[in-house]
Every structure is written in C-alpha cells, then in structure tokens.
Amino acid sequence: MTALLDVKGLRVAFSGKEVVHGVDFSIQPGEKLALVGESGSGKTVTALSLLKLALNADVSGSAQFDGRDLLALPERALRGIRGSEIAMIFQEPMTALNPLFAVGEQIAEVLQLKKGLSRKEAWQAAIGLLASTGIPEPERRAGAFPHQLSGGQRQRAMIAMALACQPRLLLADEPTTALDVTLRAQILDLLSDLQRRNGMAVLLITHDLNLVRKFADRVAVMENGHLVEHGPVADVFADPKHPYTRKLIDSRPERDGDEAVVANAAAEPVMQADGLRVGYPVAIPGVRGWFRRGEFVAVQGASFTVLPGRTLGVIGESGSGKSTLALAALGLMPSSGKLAVAGQAWGRDAAANKALRRTVQVVFQDPFSSLSPRMTVEEIVGEGLLVHEPGLASGLRRERVTAALAEVGLEETQFPGLLARYPHEFSGGQRQRLAIARALVVQPRLLVLDEPTSALDVTIQKQVLRLLQRLQRDKGLSYLLITHDVDVIRAMAHDVMVMKDGQVLEAGPVGRVLDAPQHDYTRTLVASAS
Known about the structure:
With 530 residues, the protein is an alpha/beta fold. 38% of the residues lie in helices and 25% in strands.
C-alpha cells in the first residue's frame, strides 16, 4: 500500500543549530501513528515543519503527501492543503484561538473559506461540530469567547475546528493534555470513530503513554531530535529495545516505599472544613435580571480534614469544584460554613490573614506563568521572606533562599550564577522546583498543590513527585493535592475526596476509595485511568 505521508531525512535547524536530525517515518491511509518523547525531543517541531508552520526554521529532506512534496511546495499551494487535507490540533488552545472572536465564528470561518458555505450554513455546521465533540449546550457555547470556556472545552473547540473539513491527515499535538481522564477517553473514542468513518490518518504527538496504548497502531520514539525506536505499539511496549523507551515506560508515578510518619488522628488538624459552601453571583437573563442576581454554587457542603504529615487528594473533572475548593482553602475566595487553618478561620482582617498565609502556601499548575519573567531566582524565592520577615537582614535572607533551593535540588555547583538567573533559563521541571522552593522558604505547614505535575513530561513528573514525597517525609508537611490524575493520587495521597458538580460524592482512605469505589462516578474515573 502506498503511504499517505512518507517523510525521509527530515532535518530542522534554527539559526544554524539542528534540532531534528534526519528523521524517517511514514503513515498509511487510515493509520494512527504516535510520536512520543519528552519536551525538547523534537516531536512538535517535526509536525509543524511538515506544513511549514515552524517559524524561522531551516527545513530539509522530503515529505511526500499523496505524490506531492510538502517541503517543496510554495506557500500558496500549502494554503490549499492546510485545514482541508491536513489539519492540526495545537497543544495550547488559549493561545491558538483568537480571543476577540466567539469560538463558533472561528469554526464557521474555516467552513466559509475552505468549503464555500454561506454564513448561516457555516454557523449551523459549527454548532453541529461542537456538539459532536461533546460540548454541552453547543448553541450557547458557540457564542462564547475562548476565555469563557474551561480548558477542556477550549480543546474540544480546537478539535471541532480541525475536523471541520474532514481532513485526510490529522496532526494532533497533545490533543487531550487539558482534559480530564473521562473526557480523554471520550475524545479518543471520537477521534477513532471519525478516523474509521472518514478513513482519516492521525499523527498523534504526546508524552502520555496510556494514550498511546489505547489509541495508536504504531509508535515512534524521539530523543534529542533522533528517532530512536519505532514499531507496533504492542511490540514496543512489551519489549522496548532502546534504554530511553524503557525509561519512558517505567516513569509511571509510584508511591515512595519510605512513607512519612503516620499522623496521630488526635493531633490538631492543619486544615478542617465542615459544610463548606462557595457560590458565584451570576446574571439572570431577561427582565428579572434587572432587579436581582442569581448564584452559581461551585462547592456545596464539603467537609474534610487534613492532618499533619498527610496528603488529602481532591479528584474530579473540570467544573467539579476542586479548584474553587483550593481557592477557598487559600483564603482567596469567600465561603460559608466552617473552614479553619490551624484552628483559625480566614477573616476580613488582613493582618490576621497574613499569619495564615505563611501557614498555607501554594504551588500552581504551570510554573512558567506563575513565576515572574522579570524577577531573578533570588527575588522570586525570597519574596515571601520580604513579606513575612521584613526585618531579616539581606545576608540571612540570601542564606534562607539558598537553603530552600538546595532542598529542591537546585544548587550553585550545578547552576553557576543560580541566584541571578531568570525563569526562562530553566526547564519545566526545574521551574516547578523553583515554585516549590518559593513556597517552602517561609516554612509553611500546608502546601496546596494545584495540578503540580500536569504540565510536565512523565519522567520529570516522577522526579517532582518523589521530591514532594521526600519533603513531606523530612518536614512533616501536609498537602492538599488537586488533580484529575488517578495515578498521581495513588502515588501521593493518603486520603482522597471525589468531587463532581460541586459536591463530594465519596471520600476516605485512598486504598479503599480507589480499589473498592462505591459511587459509579468514582468507578468511571478509575476505569478511565487504567
């Protein structure tokens, strides 16, 4: 059978530095090929180069698509292929979608340009495409702007746009990264169904090996711009030949064998909530909205306890209320019911809250956006000391900063000029270590971990989780872990709370809840992650 896409000797360089070194691969019509590797392996650049979307890249080699060399085609000819014959789902929908237009308008624009539909026909088709990706209330969502959708909904809108013209080849760059485990399964089923019905081939770019197992026919592994191994998925996973492939397969999160000291159940909780409720004011449509406002309840009656040296995992899909719960725990969201930190409730007194903010610190999901690009490492990590210990001498403050960095594995011997460096000079995993050091420097008792590893590659994720486990064991820290990853919950949490639509459906020790779930929703989460 003639390959739909046949890539030979693909090389990509930026400013004379080669980042993809002579890659060869092919995709048959209707086949699903997964390109896997860590950040910096060259997998995304490889895909972008096929359509000349890698800015300022020097590309050589050949990429034969249905008898045409994509790399030799002029820009005008490529425009006819992009979207209609080869489409792409980009990794970060918030930057790929235009913030000034509703998502329905952006999908309709593709249909008008590529298929010649009228404005009305394109709009109705856009609503149908959004519905096919499982977005609830597609008519209303079509009129929403990207910032008004959740991360998972934005990714679905991107998928709908890519599939609008029924392309023959889909380049999917981490298409499910922003989605919860159950939604990942739905999107995979959707892509598989469309692929079967339309005979569409898929080049899946991912670092999620569970995704590869469930979806792909063949897998190609990239390391540092080289293709180090390829073959049928079952063969490669059962008997990996290259050490790097084995490293990726062995990077599933694991519980540290040397557990933290079990907390005394009679000890004072670091955080305790009883009947916690969080609501948002929302506009009421029509005349009634002139006189009063409605309320959307994001968290309804949540009760939990976080003991010293223990981790409470909170798991659920997007919109379940887990991130709102975290904001309330940090005193950043007004709430009702009872919520106490070390026996003290959040209040309106900024001075009283200041002491609590030292007790509770946070590590955010994306370290690149949570660290100021204009501040040095010393300024970032030492900022909390300026707030909570303003009288500390500069020399002592620098010592504390250096000690906090050493605790997370960042030292001057490894990174010369460490304190004067900026965040962009570090990898994703190293930036997350900086974020952890920033939280640790004020010596908190509780860390709120908001998806702390979801933006990281599997091998880096495992390193960061091991670091958090060691810090908990050595310092007796408590964690409130927010995640949608069942594997991370199994590796990190002692207790788990399952949330859906703002309510706690099930809670208890992690082994009992995940191994013998009582609620159908919990069973669905566990099954989707297996």
